[in-house]
Design goal:
Elements lengths: L8 E4 L2 H10 L3 E6 L2 E6 L2 E7 L11 E5 L3 H11 L12 E2 L4 E7 L5 E7 L2
Parallel strand pairs: 1-4, 5-8
Antiparallel strand pairs: 2-3, 3-4, 6-7, 7-8
């Protein structure tokens, strides 16, 4: 047995922010109902949920997505939605821990770091 992936659930006060953000990143809506959506792209699944209470007010999530072609995903996002590039990591950077990374950020500070191992 092995664990093969993580499926984050991102909570939004206004679910439309999440719908726009993940659509801008090239994810497709695979399922949607009032206050809930499931996105998928290249084997990565993300759930987006509307907050019924104050869950969306606290710390916003940050998660990482591994890729085997960081240049392609970076160029796609930069060309189509440069406004979501994280101001602190808006270009691909080689990190001392052996990864090439860049990040995106939505207006509520949900952060996704795209990463690829330096071979």
């Amino acid at each position: 047995m092995s664990l093969v992936k993580i499926i984050p659930k991102v909570i939004y006060d206004d679910i439309n922010v999440g719908l726009q953000f993940f659509t801008a990143l090239g994810f497709e809506i695979k399922y949607q109902e009032e206050g809930f959506a499931i996105f998928a792209r290249d084997g990565v699944t993300i759930q987006v949920v509307a907050s019924e209470e104050d869950f969306a007010i606290g710390d916003r999530p940050e998660f990482r997505i591994d890729t085997n072609d960081i240049e392609a995903i970076y160029n796609e996002i930069k060309a189509n939605h440069p406004e979501v590039l994280h101001p602190n990591l808006k270009v691909i950077k080689e990190q001392p821990w052996g990864l090439r990374e860049f990040a995106v950020l939505d207006e509520t500070t949900v952060c996704i770091v795209f990463q690829q191992s330096i071979d």
